Amino acid sequence: MTLLGLLEREPSHGYDLKRDYDTFFSRGKPLPFGQVYATLGRLARDGKIVIGEVEPGVGPERKRYVITDRGATEVESWLTEPVEAEPNLQTVLFTKVVLALMLGRPAEEYLDRQRAAHLRRMKELTDIRRGGDLVDAMLADHGLFHLEADLHWIDTTVARLDALRTVVRR
């Protein structure tokens, strides 16, 4: 959907789409060229984009992709629908705590290690927020807020471990 949205902005070559995606959305995880072209192929197959002008080049011909009315309608629909509220009630963090308690393992130690990992990541994100541009800062804030909520949950869980241990060992 992101590539389709970028095409609604303006017709583009696959290389330009990858560059724009990586600039605004990837943050440390660049989109592989193969994934860009595979996605463009599916979008074309599904009638959401068409190949516009083709330019000769030193290598393969450069295709400019253009969004169709069907594609633009899908982008509009996607943008107006809310993202599913997260998190789900089943998380890996919760699962590990409950299993540790069920198996008689030290859940407190696991939670301490998890807290330390969260704090390290929060420091990294804080550094990104301070040194980055507005896009980096906003993405870092999003991550920080989620990590803060996890830390609150970790602290609450530590306070309730004895009671939870009793429930899961029945």
TrEMBL record:
InterPro entries in UniProt: Tscrpt_reg_PadR_N, WH-like_DNA-bd_sf, WH_DNA-bd_sf
Pfam families: PadR
Domain Transcription regulator PadR N-terminal positions: 3-76
Record's protein name: Transcriptional regulator, PadR family
Organism: Micromonospora olivasterospora
